[in-house]
């Protein structure tokens, strides 16, 4: 690994429920040789969705972390929940990454649901790309779906590729930067093929759209286009990197993650076009210095290792045993789903887990300097769904309060109250599935089975 943060990228994968985020993560790990066998969501053996609650429902219910090496760059991927009920979990993690891959199916009604996610990313100026997944299952016009997606994005979306074929007859793509055509092969890299002459007009329209958008922030490129001079490839790539890093554009890719189609070009773009960690730190208002600064993105309470705080290192190098916010680190790990790899140090840009950080909460800013200003964190999403709970066994009531505190540490989207009139314990969340996952955790992780009913109405 390189000795500085240029050789590090942290990327979140997010999108609507059933868009194929966890499958894309598995494919990224497979093509970079981080896993020896590619798992599937159906077989319940993926690195993402590693908790029992996720596998029971075949949906992501909490942040899953994985890491891999690609071309001397260490990538950390965060697989984020897609359901709106777990939105708090997702936004807490998104503020700690260098870039976001928004995964969606190429269907007009699905892409329109991305409006709240795009708004959050743009409000926080988080660089993001779009990956249209399952392109072989939808016989749709690529540019038509792209046009629909543009209606919900405040940033211009630009095609990075153009498809060869559509639906089940999708056979490859044209790279709009190099204008080289490629043919897909399941489980293997795409290989170069002659340019399909019948697509020349459509490809030229898509490429000109990309170049004209990039020229909005590059006067030299604009002059070249006006004088009909073909811009060099390195100039296009330089503009893509600069404008993506500043959250001025949203490049669009496509493929089929379950067959590894389009995954390698996406990975290549993440390598060469996403911004370095120090660029994102500057956007967060962190001025260069010698102070170690990190922020907690997620808290886990594991049955074996106790409390783990997933943190983004923003500045400096954090080492095992270091004291942050007056708390001594009791172990450092890289996470690969449920697996933990012990490490001694993490540098700026990395996302790692710190053990036994008691009293530290999700969203907290950690530093060796007590005078460091707290970094901004997402607002708390107001809970909208309630359920009254009661311990199945009367003897368990004494440990309910302490266990709920641990549950709330892990999931900031939940809160509870003891109603003053009915004396019921009310658990609040974002929906029925959200609360059912919380109840499953109480039963499985803490051996605290609960009975539930609708909250009583205190008539007066």
What proportion of the residues is helical, as a percent range? Answer: 25-40%
Query: Tell me, what's the shape?
Result: globular
Can you tell me the residue ranges where pLDDT is under 50 for at least 5 consecutive residues? none
Classification by helices and strands: alpha+beta
Largest sheet: 7 strands, mixed
Radius of gyration: 23 Å
State the distance separating the first and last CA atoms. Answer: 67 Å
How many strands appear in the DSSP assignment?
25
Number of helix segments? 13
Query: In what order do the strands lie side by side in the largest sheet?
Result: 2-3-1-4-5-11-6
- The proportion of residues in beta strands is 25-35%
Structure, explained:
The protein has 460 residues and is α+β, with helices and mostly antiparallel strands. It contains 13 helices and 25 strands. The protein has helices spanning 21-31, 52-57, 87-94, 108-111, 115-123, 142-150, 200-215, 219-226, 233-245, 263-273, 277-283, 400-410, 432-444, and strands spanning 8-14, 64-70, 73-79, 99-104, 128-132, 157-159, 161-164, 172-175, 181-185, 188-193, 250-254, 293-302, 306-315, 317-319, 323-324, 327-328, 332-336, 339-342, 345-347, 351-355, 365-367, 385-391, 415-418, 425-429, 450-453. It has a seven-stranded mixed beta sheet, sandwiched between helices. A six-stranded antiparallel beta sheet has the order 18-17-20-13-12-21. Helix 7 (200-215) runs antiparallel to helix 8 (219-226). The model has no long low-confidence stretch (mean pLDDT 92).
